[in-house]
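2 proteins. here.
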Amino acid sequence: MEGSYEMELQGMELQGTELQDAREEIRQIDEEMARLFERRMEAVRKVAAYKMKRGLPILDKEQEAQVLQRRSLLIRNPELEPFYREFLQETMDISKRWQMYLIQGKRDGMQC
């Protein structure tokens, strides 16, 4: 009986290690995503400057729909596709708020 308890404890330690490994992998991915987020927002800054110079609106529904459609094709796991679409939509919403801040906020003293 004692031997099975020890095996159970060892199994729990192994699971804990697997969990730690998975969390470390997530941490590393988050670091990479933070760098990519900054790059994306810098590109959005250029889009905002272009729109501001030409008096274009921030919202472009047709462009958003195309982005969602095309980028969703990058996901190979069909179970993840709707979640990725949601992730993209949220990212685009943040991008629009950033553009609004850049175009209107700096002028009006708006804070994000």
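next one coming up
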Amino acid sequence: MNRRHFLFALSGAAALLGSARPGRAECGTQTAREFVEALYQKQARLQAEKTPMSEEDFNATFSSGLRRLMTARRQTPTTLPDGPILNALFGYGVLPGTEVTIGKVTLASGEDTGPATIAVRIKHRGEQHRLLVHVINQDDDYRIANIIYDSGKSLLAHYQAITRA
């Protein structure tokens, strides 16, 4: 990612965050932290059962900008090895059936009504990991705009790299 791509992504994120409307949390339902915690608890259970979320529900979890990248045409060179598989919510190398334990879920920055960054502690294969989940308000609900894995790689950067967007 060069400086131009970084600034473009940063300005796009700022535009999304600036246009986000307060929604569900003001109505007395979920906070951003509660949304992320419930999502990750459900996904950990589905992961252990090897039962994926429906494609519609999975796509609805993410912001419209991230969804566009996720469904964009891939431009990965065929000469490269496949490498570790990315589980969008849990990170690299988490295959179906891998038991994932959800630990502490805390508000790292932002507002409980969003936009916010939520820190999620997970454990799989005996190793602790910390994820940072960026949540925004979109379409009167919370949506994930990016996930930063403890390796420093992010979901947004992954899709930008394979779509060359």
